[in-house]
Amino acid sequence: MSKRRRQPQTIEELLAPDRAWVTPGGCWLWLGGDDGTGEWHGLGAYGRILRPGTRRVMPVHRYVYETFVGPIPYGYDVDHMCAKWAPDPRPCRKCVNPDHLQAIPPRLNQQLKLLRRMGYGTEDMDLEEPPIERPLRPVCEPILAPGERDEDLWI
Hints:
155 residues, two-stranded antiparallel ribbon, alpha+beta, two-stranded antiparallel sheet
């Protein structure tokens, strides 16, 4: 039976190659477990980590904020600021870069989430301008068996 690894206590432990992947945009994407609510390719799920000293899990971005930034005020959410400049904000849910996290009231978090879904960045918040053009999701072509034609699928 292998020994369970402890939670990261330093930035170097957090950035271990098997724990986080550093993206060109500066996000540190969590490679550990997630809550399973995302899509098949891992987008949209929040990372999870065991709460220190217990057998319960907690969101890894909240653990990182509490460990490396400071206590989260009671009732506040931890927002991923990197979602405002990402072309697709869903992978940002796994970002554990302490510089990209901020504690905000839940109502503001919901408002920012809705604005980001509509395509607005949160840097200017000028709602008179048209929203940011986000790239469309790629359309997956059906995988055809050898000898099968595309016309056979629509008969």
